[in-house]
Each structure stands twice: as C-alpha cells, then as structure tokens.
Amino acid sequence: MEEVITISPSSISINGCQDISFTVQVTATQQGRFIVRPISLISNGPLSPDNDRLFVQLKVAKYHPLIIVSMVIGWTYTVCWTIGDYFQAWTSYRRKSVVGLSFDFLFLNIVGNCCYATFNVVLFASAFIEAEYFRRHPFGLNPVVANDVGYAVHAVFGNLVLIVQCYLYHSGGNVVSTAVKLLISGYVMMVAIFYTLTIGQQMHWLDFLYILSYVKLSTNLIKYIPQVLMNYQRKSTEGFAISNRLLDLAGGLLSLLQMVLNSWNYDDWQSIVGSPDEYYRRHPFGLNPVIGNDIGFAVHAVFGTGFTIFQCCIYETGGNSVSKPAKGIIATYLLIIVTTMVCAMLDKLHWLDFLYVLSYIKLSTTMIKYFPQAYMNYRRKSTEGFEIMNRLLDLAGGLFSILQMVLNAWNFDDWRSIGGDPVKFGLGIFSILFDLVFMFQHYILYRKRNIIAPVEHPMLPKLPVIGT
After folding, report:
1. How far from the centroid of its chain's Cα atoms is residue 184's Cα?
2. Measured torsion, CA atoms of residues 266, 271, 272, 273, in degrees rounded to the nearest 10
3. CA distance 356 to 420
4. Is-above-0.70 flag for pTM?
5. 279 with 355: CB under 8 angstroms?
6. By C-alpha distance, which of 130, 137, 129, 143 is closest to 52?
7. Bridge partners of 58?
8. Are 85 and 248 in contact (CB under 8 A)?
9. What is the C-alpha separation between 367 and 363, in angstroms, rounded?
10. Which pLDDT score, from 0 to 100, does residue 55 have?
C-alpha cells in the first residue's frame, strides 16, 4: 500500500548536545491531519522526560488560499461576537432606560461567560492543567489560544457594563425572575460542589473546568428565552438593540462556516463529529466493554418499557400519574442531553464523552427509579399488581451481568474494562440491591396482604335469587 506521507531524510543522527537545526521534506498524497511520532534512539543516558510528547502534527490542506480565508472568517466572527454588547449599551445610554431588556437574559449571560472565561484563562495559563490535558490527548494541542482568552474576558466586561446600566437607568420595574434566581442558585451550588470535590482531590481540575464550560453552554441554550418572552408580552422590541442579535447571528453563521470549510479543506470531518476510535485511543490495551448482548438488551429494554407505558395509557390507573419531582428530573435530564450533544457537535466535547453522559443518566435513573415503587408498596402495605417475577429475573440478570464482566476481565487480564463501562457494573449492583428490597416486601412484609380480591363485573346481569 502506497504511503500517504513520505519524509526525507527518513532518519537523522545527532551527535553532541549543541543546538542543531536541520530541514526535512514532507510530501503528502492526500489532505488531512497526520501524526508523525519520531523514534528516538539514544546510545547512552536516559531518554528525555518529554520524549513521549515528541510528535509533529501535519495538517495537509487541499488549497492553501482557503487557509487564509478561514483565518479571516475566524477573526470576523470573533469581532462580531465581541462588539455586540456595545450596541446594546449605546441603546440603553441613549434612552437612559433599560426597559425592554430582560434582566434574566443578562444575569444568565454573565454566569455563563464568567464560567467560560475561567475555563479559557486557566487552561491557557496553567501548566499543571495543560499537562493533564496532554496526558489525556497525547497527540493533541491545547484547544485554548490567546484570542479565546481575550474574547471570553471581554465578554464578561461587556456583560458587566450592561448590568451596571440596569442599576443606573430606569428599569420599569424589571427584575430577575424567581425561576432564574433558582436556576443561578443551582449553578452556583453545582459549581461549589464540584469545586469542593476538586479541592478534596476527588476529581481533576481539568474536569472541573469542563464543568464550567458545560454551565456556559447550558446558559446559552436558555438565556434567550426570557428575552423572547418579554418581547412577546410587551408586543414590542423597543429598548432591545437588534444590531446585537444581527452581529450574533453573523458570528454564529461564520463560526459554522469556518468549521465546515476547514473540515472540507483538510478532509477532516471527524473534527466535527468525532473519531470512532476514541475509546481505543484512551484505552489502547483494553477491550471494548460493549458486546452484542449489551446492544440486544438495551434495544429490547426500550421496547419493553414502551409497551408498559402504552398499557398505562389504555388501562385503568386509579388516579396514578407522573409526579412533579419526576417531571422535573426528566426535564433536567433532557436539558443535560441537549447541552452535551450540542457540546459534542461544536467540538467542545468528544462524542465518546457524550455517550458516557448518556450512560451516567441511565445509571442515575437506576439509582432513583426504584424508590417510587418501593414507597408505593410501603404506603399500600401490599405488592399486589407488582409482578415479583420481573424482580426475580432482574436479580438473575444483574448477577449474570457482573459475572460476565468479571469473567472477561479475569480471562483477558483487563480489569480496566470494568471501569470502561462503569454503568454496566453499577446497574448490576443497584438492581441487585433493590431487587432484594422488593423480594423482602413481597415475601416477608406484605405476604399476607397480597390476597387477590374478587373482581366485580358490573356490566353482567345479576342472577335472580331463588328462595326456598
């Protein structure tokens, strides 16, 4: 097979410790991104501590002028996103009023931008966190560059200017809504929890920065809704600088255009959708933790659950319905899924990490989904209507699931494969624990109460009573 890249000379010998410069010629037969990792052979002495970071990343483009076009597009959308707040600030200054500008929008925006600025500044300036990033992505480059830091910090400044205007000018009674206050409080609490975990060395600082970036993305997904609602309620956009949104629209379109243009020019569409080999890149000596029976189980579980929900819609429920806390939890899950999916689409999160998020949602639902049924059994003091055979099979499935993982890990001496699919292991453990609870309720606590009551059929005619 013809080599895609040829390097001349193919090997270079260096004698001595003095600085030596040399030139190599690289020829590529197709465009794309390529990693060239040199093999260093040292006759005496230890290898350099940075030897594992010695690599060259080649980006071969189809057309060189398109590289310049891409740079122009990049700086153009950066300028569009940077100066947009000043148009709104000028409109408020000229009117001496902020009536028509949603405070909810402003405060959600400042929360997101503060998190985003922290992410960019720390990842760009901290050698310790950058080292962790390179450990996870040995052939990667720091995704944060100087203009990212400048844009993020400037965005916080622009938001602060608008918020100061809200306290200086007439607001017409506009305030931050209770819902947004609760949402921001939730963000602050979540950041504080993860910060505490990081301080306690339960997670790495890089992961904490990723949490901040997810907060930024989630605020971006919802921050415009209050402004749209305010415009609808007022039936007016007076006081809301449309120039800001036009620049924001232009910046978004140019940003997407740059991504598509670079992907086509370098024939690197995986930079948008991610690489299917990411798991093996992170676990080069591991086994894929997902096998055929896992897929079959997961797909069939969706079918079985959907069928049960369909029965809930057509049969008598006795007034049973989805509780408000459950609705809130489901809505939160949907928000997390949408947020992380957009992160993956924007190349802020790898698709493998998005799949991990989905698996963690599955694990978290398993950790809490049994509580309502266990509580209902306790409140009714009965397990009538609850099929215990389902739990017995679930118990057997959990035991066999863990047995399969342990057996494969021992057989291939790959115990990390259990960590590669923590959800599968966690599902087995939690399902076993709750199955034991349900069995205790059914066979011990409420055993005598599970007497099937006679079923009345009011539509059938009653037989006459014949006296003697």
Report:
1. 19
2. 120
3. 10
4. no
5. no
6. 137
7. 34
8. no
9. 6
10. 65
Residue 155 has which token pair? 């965005």
How high is the pLDDT of residue 114? 92
28 and 2 Cβ atoms separated by less than 8 Å: no
Count Cβ atoms below 10 Å from residue 29 Cβ, excluding itself.
Answer: 10
Taking the C-alpha atoms of residue 456 and residue 315, their distance in angstroms, rounded to an integer, is 16
Q: What is the pLDDT, as a whole number, of residue 285?
A: 44
Q: List, in sequence order, every residue forming a beta bridge with 5; answer none if it has no partner.
A: 28
User: How much is the pLDDT for 399?
Assistant: 78
CB-neighbour burial class of residue 272 (10 A; exposed 0-12, middle 13-18, buried 19+)? middle
Find the angle CA(149)-CA(152)-CA(157) to the nearest 5 degrees.
120
Reading the block at residue 380, the tokens are 């009714």
- Tell how strand 56-60 and strand 25-28 pair up: unpaired
Report the pLDDT value the prediction gives residue 47, as an integer from 0 to 100. Answer: 54
> Which parts of the chain register pLDDT below 50?
1, 273-276, 279-280, 284-288, 452-463, 465, 467-468
> Tell me, what's the pLDDT at 345?
77
CB atoms within 10 A of CB 363: 17
Three-state secondary structure readout of the chain: CCCCEEEECCCCCCCCCCCCCCCCEEEECCCEEEEECCCCCCCCCCCCCCHHHCCEEEEECCCHHHHHHHHHHHHHHHHHHHHHHHHHHHHHHHHCECCCCCHHHHHHHHHHHHHHHHHHHHHHHCHHHHHHHHHHCCCCCCCCCHHHHHHHHHHHHHHHHHHHHHHHCECCCCCCCHHHHHHHHHHHHHHHHHHHHHHCCCCCHHHHHHHHHHHHHHHHHHCHHHHHHHHHHHCCCCCCCHHHHHHHHHHHHHHHHHHHHHHHHCCCCHHHHCCCCHHHHHCCCCCCCCCHHHHHHHHHHHHHHHHHHHHHHHCCCCCCCCCHHHHHHHHHHHHHHHHHHHHHHCCCCCHHHHHHHHHHHHHHHHHHHHHHHHHHHHHHCCCCCCCHHHHHHHHHHHHHHHHHHHHHHHHCCCCHHHHHCHHHHHHHHHHHHHHHHHHHHHHHHCCCCCCCCCCCCCCCCCCCCCCC
pLDDT at position 427 is 60
The residue type of 356 is Y
| Farthest-apart Cα atoms in the chain, separation | 123
Q: Which residue has the tokens 């066979």?
A: 443
Q: Estimate to the nearest angstrom the gap between the alpha carbon of 314 and the chain centroid.
A: 36
Please give the pLDDT value at position 160: 92
Residue pLDDT, tens place only, 427-455: 667 677 777 887 888 888 887 655 544 44
- Within 8 A by CB and 6+ apart from 25, the residues are 7, 8
